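Researcher: Can you fold this with zinc ion in place?
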Amino acid sequence: MRFMPWKCPRCGQAAAGTLETVPGLALLMFDDNGQAEYSGETTIDWNDQATDLDESGKVILECSNHHRWPAEYED
Ligand SMILES: [Zn+2]
């Protein structure tokens, strides 16, 4: 695969990776009256991980300095 640009426009480093969204289920606990509280645990669904895209369909790359930029992606 190829990305353009593959280097950070701010610091010149190669991208460390693509920005991804992974859905999670924040677990709830209910009392007998239906009052809910978060249990403090979230289960992550790695099978539904998806690459984030900007409005024009470009992937979002990030360098090791946490700069982000949109890039064209080619398989
Ligand atoms: Zn950078």
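Model: Folded with zinc ion in place. The mean pLDDT is 97.
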